[in-house]
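Study this protein:
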Amino acid sequence: MKKSIFIVLSVSVFVFLATISCKKDRIEKSLNEYGNLNDYLNTKKQAEQVFVIDSGGTGPIIGNQGTKIWIAKSCLQKPNGDTITWPYIVKLVELYTPMDMIYWQMPTVSSLGILETDGEIRLRAFKDNVELKLKPYPCYCLVEMPNNAPKNYMKVFYGFENSGKPDWTTNLTQLGVSPGVNPWFLATDTGYVGQIARLGWIGCDSLVGSTSGVKLNFVSTTDNLENVGIFVFLPTTKTVMQVYNMKSTVMPSGSSVKIICMGIKTDGILFCYYQALSVTANTEIEVEMTEITDANLTTLLQNL
C-alpha cells in the first residue's frame, strides 16, 4: 500500500514539474524577438553636412535648417597645437525635432537631470582627416541656432560620452577646456546666438529636472525588449529621453509624457508601441508591440 502511494506521489510530482517546465518553455518561446535597431535608425538620420572652407571671409556657414556658424581659421588648431592652412572642412549635424534626436539617439538628459531643449547640433572641423580643436579663450566659435520664439534662460551645453551613454554639461573645466566664454545663449529676433568653446555636440538647453522624482519601468509578457528602442518624450520641455536597462531617467512628478518603443524583426518588419500618459508615481509600463509601416512610424515620430 505504501509503495503504491509513493508511486502515485512520484508520478504526480513529475507531472507537476513537467507542466511547470512546459509552461515556462511556452512563455519563453512565445516572446517576439527583434534584431539590432541601429541599422534602421541610421537610415533615417539627418545627414552630416560638409563645408569646404578654402579662403577667408566674413561668413557665416549656413546649414540646411538655418544654423549659422562663424568659425575662423586663426582659432583652429591640430590636437598637437599646430596651426592650419586652407582648405579645411567643417561638418555639421542639425537636430531640431524630437524625431531627429531619436534617430541619432542623442537624448536631452544629463547626469544632473532632464533638460529643456530648443535643439542640438554637432559641429566638427578637419584638416587632412585630422579632427581639429578650438584654441583656448579668447578664441571661440559663434553659432546661431534658429528659433521663432527664443527664451532668455537657455545655456550652452556640451555633449560628451559618460559610461557609454550621452551626457551634457555646462562645466567646461570638466571637459578640460579653459572657461571664459559667455555660457548663456543670447535670444534674438531669429533664434539663439552663443559662444562655443569646444567643438562637438552642442545643445541649447536648460536644466529642468533633478535626481529626485518618478521613474518608468518597462516590462513585457509578449516581447523581448532587449533590442527594442525605448524613448520617452516630454512635450512641455521638448525633452527626449532614451531608456536603458528598462528603467527611465527620473522626471518630475506630474510630467506628461509620450512613450514610443520601436523594434525591427530580422526580416525588416517594423513593430511599435505608443502610449501618452501623465506620470504621478513610479509606474510599470506593460509593452505589447504591434506591426507598423515605415511611413506610419515616421508620421508618429513627426507628431510627437
Observations:
- Residues 1-18, 20-27 have pLDDT under 50 and may be disordered.
- The longest strand covers residues 113-127.
